[in-house]
Amino acid sequence: MMRRLPVKYYTDVMHDELLNILKVKDGCPSQQQLLDYLNGRLPPDQQHEVELHVADCALCSDALEGLSDMRHREQLPAIVRQIHAQLQRELRSHQRKNKRQKYYVWLSAVIFILLLILIIAFFAIHYAIRHSPEHTLPGQDSTRTEAPLENPQR
User: Fold this and answer.
1) CB of 17 closer than 8 Å to CB of 47
2) Neighbours of 100 (CB within 10 A)
3) What's 133's DSSP letter?
4) Which of 85, 118, 144, 152 has CA 20 to 30 A from 127's CA?
5) pLDDT digits over 38-61, tens only?
6) What are the phi and psi torsion angles at 111 (to 5°)?
7) Rounded to whole angstroms, what are the CA distances from 151 to 30, 95, 147, 148?
8) Higher pLDDT, 109 or 76
9) Where are the alpha helices (DSSP H) in the chain?
10) How many Å apart are CA 129 and CA 140, to the nearest integer?
């Protein structure tokens, strides 16, 4: 049976993955190196390293293919910054929404608990008053005893 992880785990992992989605992994050539490779500006030894890496790395192979299809490669750094900024805005918006939802859940729970305490207190006081020996109402003097009515016989 598969164990389910809490939702917070998934959102934290997703947040970290989204923040790092545009960063270069260890061992992979940088975006600039791939652009220089496409434009033929790399020295032969680095060009060979990139070719070997791209042959083994599906992600870099796809990236190189995508870069080769781009018409305006010089705009790529600006596009990457723009995408990264958009991801940051979306993540912040999502985080604010989650915080707001958590706040309302906690507020609802606190209000519910307070209402429950008030209802229990009301019934406890009501029960205590109803079942007291004197059965006096609030505001009545509990020490006063009523004398029996005398029945004058004439």
Assistant:
1) no
2) 10
3) S
4) 144
5) 888 889 999 999 999 989 998 888
6) -60, -45
7) 112, 83, 12, 9
8) 109
9) 7-19, 31-38, 44-56, 58-69, 76-130
10) 12
